[in-house]
DNA sequence: GATGAATGAGCTTTCATTCAT
DNA sequence: GATGAATGAAAGCTCATTCAT
């Protein structure tokens, strides 16, 4: 019946299946699209209601304020954005030699995040834009990064430095350079020049190769 | 008398000295700060007027609409952002062996753009945020890039590929990787983690080094 | 419950009964009165709202712009102003000897329009004033006149010229003189000197008599 | 030097020659035209200033308020509108047999007022429109009518009733019917259907003829 | 649970008017 | 006398939110 499966998937980080009614999904879908296109502040709830095909009041039955609606979109997106690092089995996979090299690890991460961004682009746009203006979101982002992403990432980097693959640069710098490289590709690919004629496979390959040449001992 | 020299400098891409009155500069300064902090759409003209210490009507005497005020800030910022590539002597400097290596060239560009971003951060924030929502700005940006930045950048890259310094990667990819690396550093440094304890000299050095290791033959 | 029957009647040229809510009628009534008193341009929507006892936003829920509110009043008034000539049975009545003479016909028309103006005076004032400034209204008026009023009026005049009652003046002049005489009386009576001590019956009788003496063979 | 002679003539009801400066005339001319086209309330002083080619402040140097500017146009126009009846020699001319019949008298008045309206149409439009909204103008108009126009007109009507030319209708009705007929022609000719293909001579002749047929004993 | 009319605060913009130059 | 930058009140209109149905 529902056509909104992508929204539903994005929002269901846990197993809360069936939580969203048909109308609710329409509202969320309409909101993501309009927020991505015009920005949160420049989108009116009446526009969202019209696009979603519901009455204005219906929005406020589900979300007490317009901002709640934004957070309902942005918070799950934020968590999904760093999902691999939240997964319990993730670090174990690295250390259990599922990835023998940092390069293999990068390749896996990039492929995974590429697919994620491609699927959920509008929601990511919204997150990215509004991050700058809403301190709750920014703080949430920083907390997640500091508590979950950074420690695991650092262990992985140190692991491959000890294995001799990576040069003895400061761990923070390696992380920063890595994220910048991968995110830089995704930003260029999907945000800045989405209409450019990209050879995705090749460009990802080059991105990894150049980065690894730079980072290797 | 005036304290707004930084705005004045930013906006005077040509030699239009003395063009801005005291009140106009106060308006522009207040607008940049508020737009950077809360976003264009979420900032009201009455807030700007109050912060600038002028009557609301005064804003509209100088800028017919709120959007005109935005463009008065964003357009010069956009041009200044790519200013080195607009300068006539720029390419000549490269080919006249002012820069013997791509690495030297990168170092000069990064130092220059680092200073620029540091000085004009709020205006750059505004440009960066609103680029996504206003097609006129986006188109202007793309035109400037395609007509001025890209061709010169490509010549430089080819020059150093022919000299044997750079690997024979596609020119577009070299440009993309270069911009991503430098802009990625600046974004991390000034936008994402401005409060982190950065050792700017060292991190810029590492950024250049890793990138060059990646790009070298 | 409702006290606004006159507005409701005026606006319901067709059989759209029950179309207007209580608040909508209050808005229309307040608007007609204020437009008549101060003119459209000099009346603010906040004044209308206050007089109507509704919030200002409520006006704009029903009428997208202030001008739409004007047109909602003026357009029906315009049609009602020439209503007799729009009625399908009207011409037949004349030719079926319901009126044996032009004089009888004039008497009927004048009595009818006298009652109309007396009842809907404020709305007619508004129509009359704004006709001069809004080309849409003027064009609508001209179209209705040329397509509906003039042809029927001309047939009637020719009919009584052929019967020998009216002199062989140009039809256009007869129509012009007739309308000028009747409308002139109504304008003097209700617009220019409403406070004068009028003997309406006698003055209407004189108006008809003098006009007919002038037009008769 | 000046091109504004018509305005100057209209405004100089007395012999105040040379009273208006070049700029003042430009302001008045621009104001009349815009008030006639859009109405007093819908015309801004800045529009007038732009059209007149002067600074906004200059208007307020000559006329303390926008309303003063309106009155500076409307008051002279009002007096000129009934000018014949204000002229001292006017009644004497009638009784000294300069006009042997009411019909001759009407013909003279109509020709004179026709020329006046044709020359000063925009100012008359303004007077006519604003009369309805400004009680000072209305009162001024009524005072002039009651004190100057009506008594003289009444004497003339009685004169020709005594001479046996006019029927023994109430004097007020004769005056009303006369004014209505002449003003009705001028209104139709210049305000309602200025673009119609008028044969002015013939229509004026018919107007007089029909009216006289109606009023004659 | 869903609706949409109603609200009133707040938005961008315009305006008549002032005043230092 | 003329200017036009500056004003701030008020204009038309939009908006997030409420609530009776």
TrEMBL record, chains A, B, C, D:
Report the DNA-binding ranges.
44-63
**Transmembrane feature ranges:** none
UniProt-listed GO biological process terms: regulation of DNA-templated transcription
* Annotated keywords: DNA-binding
What organism is the protein native to? Answer: Geobacillus genomosp. 3
| Matches recorded under Pfam families | TetR_N (PF00440)
Domain HTH tetR-type stretches: 21-81
The protein depicted here goes by the name: TetR family transcriptional regulator
**Gene Ontology MF terms:** DNA binding
Which InterPro entries does the annotation name? Answer: Homeodomain-like_sf (IPR009057), HTH-type_TetR-like_transc_reg (IPR050109), HTH_TetR (IPR001647), Tet_transcr_reg_TetR-rel_C_sf (IPR036271)
Lineage top rank: taxon: Bacteria
Whether Lyase counts among this entry's keywords is no
User: What PANTHER family would the database entry show?
Assistant: HTH-TYPE TRANSCRIPTIONAL REGULATOR RUTR, REGULATORY PROTEIN
């Amino acid at each position: 019946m529902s056509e909104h499966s992508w929204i539903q998937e994005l929002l269901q980080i846990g197993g809360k299946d069936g939580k969203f009614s048909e109308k609710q999904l329409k509202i969320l879908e309409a909101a993501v699209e309009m927020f991505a296109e015009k920005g949160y502040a420049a989108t009116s709830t009446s526009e969202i209601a019209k696009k979603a095909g519901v009455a204005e009041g219906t929005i406020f039955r589900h979300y007490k304020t317009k901002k709640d609606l934004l957070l309902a979109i942005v918070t799950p997106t934020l968590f999904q954005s760093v999902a691999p690092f939240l997964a319990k089995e993730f670090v174990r996979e690295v250390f259990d030699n599922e990835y023998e090299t940092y390069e293999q690890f990068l390749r896996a991460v990039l492929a995974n995040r590429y697919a994620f961004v491609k699927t959920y682009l509008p929601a990511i746009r919204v997150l990215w834009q509004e991050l700058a203006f809403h301190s709750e979101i920014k703080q949430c982002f920083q907390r997640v990064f500091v508590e979950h992403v950074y420690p695991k990432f650092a262990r992985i980097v140190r692991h491959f430095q000890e294995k001799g693959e990576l040069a003895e640069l400061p761990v923070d710098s390696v992380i920063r350079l890595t994220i910048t490289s991968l995110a830089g590709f995704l930003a260029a690919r999907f945000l800045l020049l989405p209409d450019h004629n990209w050879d995705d496979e090749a460009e990802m390959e080059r991105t990894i190769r150049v980065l690894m040449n730079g980072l290797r001992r």
